[in-house]
Amino acid sequence: MALTKPRIIELLLITTVPAMVLAQGGWPDTALVAWTVLGGSLAAGGANAINMYVDRDIDQLMERTRNRPLVTGRISPRSALTFAVALEIVAFVVLTLSSNVLAGALAVSATLFYVFIYSLWLKRTSRQNIVIGGAAGAAPVLVGWAAVANSVSWSAVVLFLIIFLWTPPHFWALAIRHADDYKAASVPMLPVVETPRRTVLTMGWYCVAVTAASLALIPLNDMGVIYFVVAVVLGVAFTSMTFGLGRAPTMVAAMRVFTFSITYLTLLFVVAMFDVLVR
């Protein structure tokens, strides 16, 4: 359980099921939803476990991560990697057999991107690490859409873009709280390499972009008034709160933005699903 980071998986699945509903234009077959959720959980859990394997050297340098099982020695690196790869194989089989090869391939591809592009390369070398690496966290909506439609439409791409643009302000808010940890581990997260003012401004403009992306879904997927109103209200609130962080970029204020960012994404996708189901 510790290796798979279930709290992160939970957030990924919150976006997967609504994507399936939008792809179906209603509630999909419940068995398909269950199998897709299971396969997506296994794939995400495997990716998180591999990330712990890769980051075990810097995890011991950060207060937030020094109690992870590979740092404390409760689990050996070889066992963790074997477990992670096994999860990815089972995830591909589950998604392929329950839906189609495209869904399975997208899930595994997201893991490969997360491991090789983000964890092994960008995380330790570029201030754009979480910006580009966020594509892996946005992939579950493509998996969910593909599981239903066996294709990826422009609506699915916009759902992907929403999460992709949401990830930087979400993660940088957490990084402000743990900036000292990232500095100790020489990880160039934006709050470590930029001033608080520049970091907050960048976060704010990403919030503007994610709000615009959420509204772009309306004509593409024929979303109704309920979704429009909620998307506007949530977008304004997220943007205002983030820009407001510039007035007092404290750890407490940053964590408020981080917490609200999770609420934002959850409500946006749940309301999008509700909008489709009540048509």
Task: Describe the fold and architecture.
This protein is mainly α and 279 residues long. The protein is built from 13 helices and no strands. It has one domain (6-277): Farnesyl Diphosphate Synthase. The protein has helices at 6-24, 30-54, 56-59, 69-72, 77-98, 101-125, 129-149, 154-177, 179-184, 190-193, 196-221, 225-244, 251-277. Helix 1 (6-24) crosses helix 7 and helix 1 (6-24) packs parallel to helix 13 (251-277). The longest helix has 27 residues, at 251-277. The relative contact order is 0.12.
Brief summary:
This protein has 279 residues and is mostly helical.
Can you give keywords for this protein?
81% helix, Farnesyl Diphosphate Synthase, flat, mainly alpha, 279 residues
Principal-axis shape equals flat
CATH topology: Farnesyl Diphosphate Synthase
Strand content: under 5%
The N- and C-terminal alpha carbons lie at a distance of 39 Å
- Which structural class should the secondary elements be placed in? mainly alpha
| Largest beta-sheet characterization | none
Q: Write down the oligomeric state.
A: single chain
Mean pLDDT: 95
Count the E strands.
Answer: 0
